[in-house]
Amino acid sequence: MPAVVLLAASAAQAQIAVVAPAPAPVADGLWRGSGGAAATLTSGNTDGVAASLSLDAVRATRRDRITLGGSLNYGRSEVDGERETTADRWNASARYDYNLTPRTFVYGRASVESDRVVELDRRDTVDAGLGWKLIDLRDTSLSVFTGLGRSIDRYDREQRIDGRDDSRFARTTLTLAEESLHRLTPTVELRQRLDIAPTISGDRTTILRFSSSLAVALNSTLSLTVTLADQYNSEPPAGVRRNDLTLFTGINVKFGPQPPAAPPPAQPQPQP
Question: What is the torsional sign of CA 248, 249, 251, 256?
Answer without folding.
Answer: positive
